[in-house]
Write a structure and sequence with these properties.
mainly alpha, about 270 residues
Length: about 270
């Protein structure tokens, strides 16, 4: 199962390399159901794995001039503050047992996995539905809706902190719609935002009481980083829209499975 988990880790990188999102949506279920990691700890590991992998992809994009660093700052500052605060202060105060009814006990790990599954289902919808937005031209000037970008940055940060999701499926539409950014530039910029806020969020966990398995984390991250290079190569040969829709259906099925497993198959 451990070998299978590391091989599946490559899919995390492939997803980030192909569509700029979806890495954390795969990481947490792989860690929990294949590697046997506690769900609360898995969300912390996900921040490091996805952050490191996205950083590699972000540097690649920056070298190709596909990163807008002004946007990284505008979107990233509220997002970074929110994810750091959430990991350091909010997650630790969530009670281990939230409520119980009869023989069913709704625990903190179950709550985080259910929340994660809901995020997966919402993400799948954004991937499956056909895009109705007019494409932004490569030469079109970037304009900023500052209040909305700051608000969404904070919301994505809290979400990242709670479930370890990088939030690329929220960041990319926000950049395209709120900053009028071309899609390729939005993907590269998103990777940098995901990397910075995820890694800073993970620092909040290091400062807590969690014991980190650095060997598992390092090997898993290595396979994920290898996957992002595969994803970048495949992105030149596979049409992004077809791949995104297929991945969306997979994410939808996984989200429904997690809800059923956590609530009914314990």
């Amino acid at each position: 199962m451990e070998i299978l988990g590391y091989l599946l880790a490559m899919l995390v990188g492939v997803s980030l390399g192909l569509i700029g999102s979806g890495g954390s949506i795969l990481t947490v279920p792989i860690l929990v159901y294949v590697m046997g990691v506690n769900p609360v700890l898995a969300t912390a590991y996900s921040l490091f794995i996805v952050g490191s992998t996205a950083l590699v992809g972000g540097v690649q994009s920056a070298l190709q001039k596909k990163v807008d660093f002004k946007t990284v700052l505008i979107f990233g500052i509220p997002s970074i503050a929110a994810v750091y605060a959430t990991r350091l202060w909010l997650v630790p105060v969530i009670p281990d047992v939230i409520f119980s009814t009869g023989s069913f006990v709704f625990t903190k790990p179950i709550a985080l996995m259910i929340l994660f599954a809901i995020v997966m289902i919402l993400a799948s919808y954004s991937m499956i539905k056909p895009s109705k937005n007019k494409a932004v031209e490569e030469h079109e000037k970037i304009t900023y809706n500052y209040p909305m970008i700051l608000l969404e940055g904070a919301v994505v940060g809290v979400l990242t902190g709670l479930v370890g999701a990088g939030g690329g499926f929220l960041i990319i539409p926000a950049l395209v719609l709120l900053a009028r950014m071309p899609m390729k530039l939005a993907v590269g910029t998103s990777l940098f935002i995901i990397a910075v806020k995820s890694l800073i969020g993970f620092i909040g966990d290091i400062q807590g009481s969690e014991v980190i398995d650095w060997k598992l984390l390092g090997v898993f991250t290595g396979f994920a980083v290898a996957g992002i290079f595969i994803g970048i190569l495949l992105s030149k040969k596979i049409h992004g829209n077809h791949l995104k829709k297929g991945f969306g259906w997979f994410v939808l099925i996984m989200g429904i499975y997690i809800i059923i497993k956590e609530l009914f198959l314990k």
